[in-house]
């Protein structure tokens, strides 16, 4: 080997760009697993347990890709190799962005109680009628779970309360229906005093049911809402958030 050959060989040798490209390949595989888990379950290609395993493997692969990318970035920076450094940096940043949603979901799960049925009236919750058959075919019960769940709800979500509209019942029902449609829900039942609808989540296609009860009061019309998941012990706060979003949609309709 001549001195000229030694000088032409880039610092870090061939393994450095290979490491960077390999980290990118691992990241792409992880992205496929994470992105494909929900559609695979929704299209009935995988059972729920297998889809969650797919998600878990995607998270593990993402962590591996980030580790490899960071090693490539550090080594390439030390060796003054621009391309491997850029690839490693992209892998690290992309992994952080890709894992942000699962991480936030996990954070919410740490603070949310293990309940899946939320209502503005825990003493006399609105009852599912039209959607009762669909809920009976699902793992979670049709009937409201009871005092233990109500106590956990009040502790975790004290803001979930009924709304009083200064409107007669008929006008309030029109507002309530319009807000439900604004939410993108599929209306299953619509009468003067009750609306039942289903909200389907985008990624996994989970179906959560909503019942809206309207009752006349001295101050106008009271709206009570109950949102319940068909599947899963805990909802990570999704049903409480849905009720908040619905009441926000009602307010927008009143503006």
Can you give me a brief rundown of this structure?
The protein is α+β, with helices and mostly antiparallel strands. It has helices spanning 3-8, 15-42, 48-79, 82-111, 132-136, 147-156, 169-182, 238-254; strands at residues 117-119, 163-165, 186-190, 194-200, 207-217, 220-229.
Description:
The structure is a single chain. The protein has 255 residues and is α+β, with helices and mostly antiparallel strands. The protein is 56% helix and 15% strand. It has eight helices and six strands, in the order ααααβααβαββββα. A hairpin with a 2-residue loop joins strand 5 and strand 6. Helix 2 packs antiparallel against helix 3 and helix 2 packs parallel to helix 4. It starts with a helix and ends with a helix.
Q: Any idea what the shape is?
A: elongated
At the first level of CATH, the class of the largest domain is: Alpha Beta
| CATH superfamily annotation of the largest domain | Kinase associated domain 1, KA1
Uncertain runs = none
Rg (CA only): 26 Å
Count the helices. How many?
A: 8
Helix-and-strand structural type: alpha+beta
Keywords: Membrane, Transmembrane, Transmembrane helix
Transmembrane segments: 58-78, 85-106
InterPro entries: DUF1499
Protein name: DUF1499 domain-containing protein
């Amino acid at each position: 080997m001549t001195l000229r050959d030694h000088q032409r060989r880039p610092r870090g040798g061939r393994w450095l760009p290979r490491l960077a490209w390999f980290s990118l390949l691992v990241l792409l595989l992880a992205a496929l697993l994470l992105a494909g888990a929900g559609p695979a379950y929704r299209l009935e290609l995988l059972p729920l347990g297998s889809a969650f395993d797919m998600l878990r493997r995607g998270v593990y692969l993402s962590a591996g890709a980030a580790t490899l990318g960071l090693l490539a970035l550090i080594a390439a920076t030390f060796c003054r190799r621009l391309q491997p450094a850029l690839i490693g940096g992209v892998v690290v940043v992309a992994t952080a962005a890709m894992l942000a949603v699962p991480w936030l979901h996990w954070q919410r799960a740490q603070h949310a109680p293990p309940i899946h049925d939320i209502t503005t009236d825990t003493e006399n919750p609105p009852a599912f009628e039209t959607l009762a058959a669909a809920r009976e075919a699902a793992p979670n019960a049709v009937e409201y779970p009871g005092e233990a769940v109500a106590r956990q709800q009040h502790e975790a979500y004290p803001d979930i309360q009924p709304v009083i509209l200064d409107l007669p019942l008929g006008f309030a029902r029109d507002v309530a229906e319009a807000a439900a449609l604004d939410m993108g829900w599929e209306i299953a039942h619509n009468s003067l005093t009750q609306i039942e609808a289903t909200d389907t989540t985008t990624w996994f296609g989970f179906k959560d049911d909503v019942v809206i009860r309207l009752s006349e009061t001295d101050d106008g019309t009271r709206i009570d809402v109950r949102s319940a998941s068909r599947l899963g012990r805990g909802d990570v706060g999704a049903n409480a958030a849905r009720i908040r979003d619905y009441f926000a949609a009602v307010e927008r309709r009143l503006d």
